[in-house]
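By way of example, what follows is a protein record of this kind.
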Amino acid sequence: MVQYRALVIALILLLSTTVPEVHSKSIFERDRRDWLVIPDAVAAYIYEAVNKMSPRAGQFLVDISQTTVVSGTRNFLIRETARLTILAEQLMEKIKNLWYTKVQGY
């Protein structure tokens, strides 16, 4: 029973967007700031597999993924990962600038 609940919670967190939205994004896009594309793609594959076996269970996953708790959690994660991505890009820019000015002497 505990394993079933853990599986359902994991699927809910993974399946946090609609399937067409996932397929419209590229996982390996170079300048992609959205780190949640890969979990969304995994969730879409899980949804497709579950939906093939049981459309009723697939609909259940879709219904659960559209609740306010899951949407709020997903939005929070998107917001925080975007903030961390920007900070990481700024840090890389500073390191690159430091490398060119102090180490190479440009």
In short: The radius of gyration is 19 Å. Helices lie at 2-14, 19-23, 37-53, 55-65, 68-103. The mean pLDDT is 76. The chain has one domain: 1-104.
